[in-house]
Amino acid sequence: MFVHYAQLGLLSLRRNPLLTALMIMSIAFGVAASMVTYAVFRAVSGDPIPQKSAHLFAPQVDNWGPQYNRKGEPASAMTYTDAMALMHAHKAKRQTVLFQVLMSVMPTQGSGLPFKSAGYATYGDFFSMFDVPFQYGQGWNAQDDDNRAAVAVISRDLNQKLFGGANSVGREIELEEQTYRIVGVTEHWDPKPRFFDMFNGNAYTDASEVYIPFTHAIDLKMDTGGNNSCSGVGNRGVGWDGWIRGECVWISPWVELDSKADADEYLQFLHAYAQEQQRAGRFSWAPNVRLRDVNAWLEFQHAVPPESRLSLTVALGFFVICLVNTIGLLLAKFMRRAPEIGIRRALGASRADIYRQFLAEAGMVGLAGGVLGLFLTGLGMAGAGMVFEPQIARLAHLDMSLVALTLLVAIGATVLAAFYPTWRAAQVQPAWQLKSN
Amino acid sequence: MMQIKPILAALKRHKAGTILIALQIALTLAIVCNALFIIQQRVDRLSRPTGMIETDLMAIQNRWVGIDDEATAPLVKADIQILRSLPGVEDAVSTNSFPLRGGGWSMGVRLNPTAKKPITQTTLYFVDDHALPTMGAKLIAGRNFRADEVVTIDPKVFESSPVVIITKALADKVFPDGSALGKQIYITEGAPSSTVIGIVERLQVPWNGNFANKFEGNSTLLPIQLSGNFSAYLIRSKPGQLASVLKAAPAALFKANRMRVIPSERGVRTYADVREQAYKSDRGMAILMGIICVVLLAITAAGIVGLTSFWVGQRRKQIGVRRALGATKHDILSYFLTENLLIGIGGVVVGAMLAVGMNLWLMQQFEMARLSPVYVIAGVIVLLLLGQGAVLAPAMRAARVSPVEATRSV
């Protein structure tokens, strides 16, 4: 029976090609605009580490006070003093602090030019906390942290560049004129957004290539390759020692906590730490601390670029207008066939039959709109780089789920839009139509 | 106009269609107003001048490899000598940053060295006496730096400079009475003061994000060359020779010293590229909003054509009767135009409210500015005209209905 209705629908659609084309285009444009912007939004609003996002927390301690902090929120990173206090307290199951490093790499063979690689100076817990996958070897251990060892973990890409992809564990790498022993090679690992380094605006930058122990970097007095914020506190302090003892923030701390109770306990610890600093005279304000898990942290850091939310909002509004338009056109189309409906009803078709017939017709409009919309979505994806930052635009893919969603939304929305016109069509009084004919 | 009553009576019988058209006009108005407003804001932003002469200008970003941060000063000096002596190069300067670069150094400006709150923010450009000619920034008061005032300082110990050149925007903010030249300002809390020796007409800060809107013209030039790992070079070519300098400059630098990294992306750029990359998302957003506006208006017009055509078809008999009873073609035409105008007015009244509501919401969500009523008025006029234009074809078809139709039964 459905096939019959579909044939009837096709026939009817062919009768007013202009009106039909109008409806199809309307649906297609609406659904395509929504899908392109949704694909980008989905890419930037996703959970970068779903299996663990509820157990990883970014602690914050307000070291600037109400006069200099932003809207009462503690700084988005920590001073060396506070970061070290957290590491030494060792109150969480796992903990790490990190800062971005930008290091020159000497090519191992030949006369290639040196190049820069970005990465992180961090603690060994980093790799297990963030589930970093390894191709060869593994991260360094707590002993290496304590020994301030010159060890390094490099990425698969850097390993390819330097060693042609061979197992390089145990070999040496020269970073900033210093020799490091490679202990691990990661698989390609690049969570987007890069939740653990939002402070440096690195949410969507290229994958990091190298990791070295934080303790070793501090021994070398390595400067951060990322941001250093001193807020109203003003200057950095004099020299290296002045800087790391000062109130400038540049280190991102992370802790792993298994349960809500652990998290509460850790927050208590942060509070107590801030209180202690207040008593010691360093803070002249009441403790102001935060402990946000990954998703709360991303929201706080506005991981979703405003461009993405704004364009999704406008595109959805656009889709609603397209649907209103479709309702109007379907209404016109169906009501024009009142005489035909009257005859069918008089010949014994029930209201339900009328519903089925017209909804099938609408479904076909939706399908056609969806197919055209899919084409436009593909086109839009190619052009997404014009609207969004290229590194964000390339995160959006036209994958199977998006294809299915596009067709589903197109058909679903059109059928939904058709309910009112169909209801009106089903109300047609056969006697009235027959009489006036 | 006398027809309004019968039109209203007729519309009451087509409630659904009437409401749908009005709703579509209302929603379209709301979105088009806000989209146009977004376009205007973005275009305003990306057409801000930097204060530099942007033609024949290029930038190189350089990082030293395997050289102590404290030992880079002579290398930078050598680089600059090489660049200035290249054929086709007019002038060159080494700086920590430049307008629209994205990253830079900002400080608070104070008149009282111990004040807790600075008066305003400024960016610091660490340059030498070649900065103004290279940038093409216009000095409107005072003098340029002298070569003997230029010193090299480690950024970790930098506090202030005895002399500075500031932009007019900064001067006006700190000295509203226009007396900035020769005065003392403090760029680091508790550090020695700096004398303003020159004022440039305009020089934009390195950032173009919303956060920098408040101080986007507040720049300070200091006769200081920072030592350290990173340096940026601004190079002005002789007129029309930019393309050759673009190739020659990095080649000459590598020839002099290979221990450096000039990134393949954004390492060597013409200033036109710098500007394009800085405003990429603004331009993209304006284009997207433009496309959405055009498609929306087209769809709304098409919807009006579709529904009105249906109404005309439905009312052929009534139109025939009216024509038979003496109504002229013009009467029929004006009937449909007036009908559309009434629906349109209903739509734009609701739409104007929606537009303002949507703007309020956007202001809250995206830190947008308040929608100027000009946009609402312009949107109202555009949509009413669009409606009249869209209804014209079906209305003319209606006007051509012959009085004979009245006598036909179908």
From TrEMBL, chain A:
Chief place of localization: membrane
Cell location: Cell membrane
Topology in the lipid bilayer: Multi-pass membrane protein
Domain MacB-like periplasmic core: 20-217
GO cellular component terms, A-Z: plasma membrane
MF-aspect GO terms: transmembrane transporter activity
Record keyword Flavoprotein present: no
Alphabetically ordered keywords of this record: Cell membrane, Membrane, Transmembrane, Transmembrane helix
InterPro entries: ABC3_permease_C (IPR003838), MacB_PCD (IPR025857), Macrolide_Exporter_MacB (IPR050250)
Keyword DNA repair: no
Pfam family, one: MacB_PCD
Superkingdom of origin: Bacteria
Chain segments annotated as transmembrane: 21-41, 310-332, 365-388, 400-420
Annotated coiled-coil segments of the chain: none
Name listed for the protein in its UniProt record: ABC transporter permease
TrEMBL record, chain B:
Membrane topology: Multi-pass membrane protein
CC terms in the record's Gene Ontology section: plasma membrane
InterPro entries, per the entry: ABC3_permease_C, MacB_PCD, Macrolide_Exporter_MacB
Keyword annotations of the record: Cell membrane, Membrane, Transmembrane, Transmembrane helix
Transmembrane segment boundaries: 20-39, 285-312, 333-362, 374-393
GO molecular function: transmembrane transporter activity
Transmembrane among keywords: yes
Residue span, MacB-like periplasmic core domain: 43-240
Residue stretches making up the ABC3 transporter permease C-terminal domain: 291-403
Localization: Cell membrane
Keyword Transcription regulation: no
Similarity annotation: Belongs to the ABC-4 integral membrane protein family.
Name the record gives this protein: Peptide ABC transporter permease
Native organism: Dyella tabacisoli
